[in-house]
Write a structure and sequence with these properties.
Layout lengths: L8 E6 L5 H13 L3 E6 L3 H4 L2 H8 L17 H8 L2 E7 L1 H8 L6 H8 L4 E5 L3 H5 L1 H12 L4 E2 L3 E4 L5 E5 L3 H12 L27 E6 L4 E2 L5 E2 L6 H12 L3 E6 L11 E4 L3 H14 L4 E4 L6 E3 L17 E3 L3 H10 L8 E8 L6 H8 L3 E6 L11 E2 L1 E5 L4 E3 L3 E2 H20 L1
Parallel strand pairs: 1-2, 1-3, 3-4, 4-5, 8-11, 8-13, 11-12, 13-16, 16-17
Antiparallel strand pairs: 6-7, 9-10, 14-15, 17-19, 18-21, 19-20
Helix pairs in contact: 1-3, 1-9, 4-6, 5-8, 10-14, 11-12
Length: about 425
């Protein structure tokens, strides 16, 4: 089921209140609705809940400094301000209300709100007498009437002071509902490349001592020395898998076709732009020098010209090409792998790029002899070639079917490698 905030980026500002601990659960609820969340902390908020907790759950670096830079040298809070679909400040303290109402950018939360044109919501939390003070009420009125900010009103109950009264942070589902309502009907403001980058999750070195071969990019089948038959693959998915495997301790060989993204320096790279060259490279890396796993993420051409011209063809009235099928690399490697004892057999992973339907994927998994098949509909927005995200279904030879939501390609890579590691552990005992 698709979350109500699927594909959205939400900025979560947290101020220095005892209710800051509830922001951790709010982050989880926003993520459960499909949102990508970046957290901003005021200095006092960080004394209640540290950045490490929010960073681990959000998968983003936590913004704590107005002068903080992202790894690509962009100003962190400005990127959040420009890319977020909405910003919610919860808990919002009396101090933040006063600073925000008067445009004083004294912390990263206020600065982000000042710099954004996205909807801003705030959920106050404070002592009852603070909440009812005329200064606080005037600040709230200014934020609502002059700035158009939306308030999720505090509730009555037990307060940190030990008193009973108004000032408790609103119930978290109400805050989530308010965020959903604020973005309803508006387009997503920014794609993954314009957002703060994700921080790769830390993993145990569960591929340490293992060799993983990954094919990446598209193949090019020559028509003549100048022209070729190709496809739209950029290599992003294959590179994401290679980087994830390296982060988990694997030795990685990348068999690279035509790619448009940098290849990780720590990997061994074998260039193979045609299907025939890729077949030779994959068989050498997986069969002749046994590997523990092969992930065939490359978009390999199904056909090539039966005969390539040795000189450039001249322009004419038209051209007719006779095509022949290319080698089925995945099926050949799968057949050779099945000839081995199970304990020595590499895990074979195939990819299936489909359009409109994934109905053919289970049959492809069976025919290719793969252990896992990653299928996606490349006509779906955010799931095709050249994107930073992907929505895939992972099919297993055991009949399993894991339908993943729209994720970054690095997240898809780690989900896939979790399955690969489990199969390797089972086979190797």
């Amino acid at each position: 089921m698709t979350g109500r905030l699927e594909g959205r980026l939400i900025g979560l500002g947290v101020c220095g209140s005892i209710a800051a601990y509830k922001a951790v659960e709010l982050l989880r609820l926003l993520r459960a609705e499909g949102a990508d969340v970046v957290v901003m902390l005021t200095p006092s908020a960080a004394t209640f809940v540290g950045p490490l907790t929010f960073g681990a759950l959000s998968r983003h670096a936590v913004e704590t400094d107005v002068l903080g830079l992202l790894p690509d040298q962009r100003i962190g809070h400005i990127v959040v301000a420009d890319a977020a679909d909405a910003i919610v400040v919860a808990p919002a303290t009396a101090r933040w209300l006063g600073a925000m109402a008067n445009g004083i950018a004294s912390d990263v939360v206020t600065a982000t709100c000042l710099a954004t044109s996205a909807p801003v919501l705030f959920a106050p939390a404070m002592d009852g007498d603070m909440w009812t003070h005329r200064a606080t009420r005037d600040n709230v009125t200014r934020l609502q009437e002059a700035f158009g900010y939306r308030m999720i009103a505090p509730e009555t109950g037990s307060l940190a002071s030990g008193q009973e009264g108004i000032g408790r942070l609103a119930e978290l589902p109400l805050i989530v509902d308010a965020v959903v309502e604020a973005v309803a009907g508006s387009p997503i403001r920014a794609g993954a490349s314009a957002r703060p980058p994700l921080v790769a999750p830390s993993h145990d070195p569960d591929l340490e001592g293992r060799h993983v071969v990954v094919s990446a990019g598209g193949t090019a089948e020559a028509i003549d020395p100048v022209r070729f038959i190709g496809n739209r693959s950029t290599g992003r998915m294959g590179v994401a898998i290679a980087e994830a495997a390296l982060a988990r301790g694997a030795g990685v060989t990348i068999v690279a076709g035509r790619v448009e993204v940098p290849l990780p320096a720590a990997a061994t790279v074998v260039r193979a732009e045609s299907t025939a060259a890729m077949r030779a490279a994959v068989l050498d890396a997986v069969i002749e020098h046994p590997a523990d796993a092969l992930v065939m993420a490359a978009a390999v051409a199904d056909f090539r010209p039966a005969a390539a011209a040795v000189t450039k063809l001249t322009r004419g009235e038209g051209m007719t090409l006779e095509l022949e099928p290319t080698e089925d690399i995945l099926a050949e490697v799968g057949a050779r792998a099945r000839a081995r004892d199970l304990a020595a057999r590499p895990v074979i992973v195939g990819f299936a790029a489909e359009t409109g339907s994934l109905e053919r994927a289970p049959d492809k998994l069976r025919r290719k002899g793969a252990d896992l098949l990653v299928a996606n509909d490349v006509s779906e927005p955010g799931s095709g070639f050249g994107t930073d995200t992907n929505r895939v279904v992972i099919l297993g030879a055991d009949g399993s079917r894991d339908e993943l939501p729209l994720l970054t390609k690095r997240e898809v890579a780690d989900r896939l490698l979790d399955r690969v590691v489990a199969l390797l552990d089972e086979r190797r005992g």
